[in-house]
Amino acid sequence: MIKYTNGTLSYIYLPHGLFVGDFLNTQVYIYKFYNKTLLGCRVSLKFLRKFTIFFNLVDFSKINSIYSNSSGTFCSFLQFFKEYNLVKVKLPSTKNYIISGDSFGTLGRNSNIYKKYRVIGAAKYLTQMGKKPTVRGVAMNPVDHPHGGRTKTNSPEVSIWGWVAKVSH
């Protein structure tokens, strides 16, 4: 949660490394930008230097196109085409994307970078998060799944239509 200078409160995405009491600002003009390049600042992409990382990229040329919002993700600034006001950006999917230079991004990397290493111990926690359990086809009976029912036979795995699914070399 962030408190603005006029007293209003709002939620924002938290940059990794930001602490309670730190100040954030949005840079609109170039003469202000090079004085303070702080973590968590909202910056127009045309003012960035090469290989600067940022997240929460909002592309104004498309409706509802926001990139790099997941935990620990970031985009990288690659190139600015000044005559066209276009910016080449490397997305977290490693694809290069060309967007308007007037688009905004938040400096830094999105927080909670160790989320992918979290171990969920029991199935009940997954069901509480809304994920249903999946049963392997091999553990089913033959009437339920084509892979099921193989206890004493060496028949190969087959697809839904009965074709052999494994290739023997």
Structural account:
The model has no long low-confidence stretch (mean pLDDT about 80). This protein is about 5% helix and about 25% strand. It folds into two domains: about 1-105, Roll (SH3 type barrels), CATH 2.30.30.30; about 120-165, no CATH class. Strands 3, 4, 5, 6, 7, 8, 9 and 10 form an eight-stranded mixed sheet that branches. It has a two-stranded antiparallel sheet with strand order 1-2. By secondary structure, it is mainly beta.
Q: Summarize the amount of helix as a percent range.
A: under 10%
Morphology: elongated
CATH topology of the largest domain: SH3 type barrels
Question: What's the CATH architecture name of the largest domain?
Answer: Roll
| H and E order | EEEHEEEEEEEH
Q: Give the total of domains.
A: 2
Radius of gyration: 24 Å
Class derived from helix and strand content: mainly beta
Short description:
6% of the residues lie in helices and 24% in strands. It is mainly beta and 169 residues long. The model has no long low-confidence stretch (mean pLDDT 82).
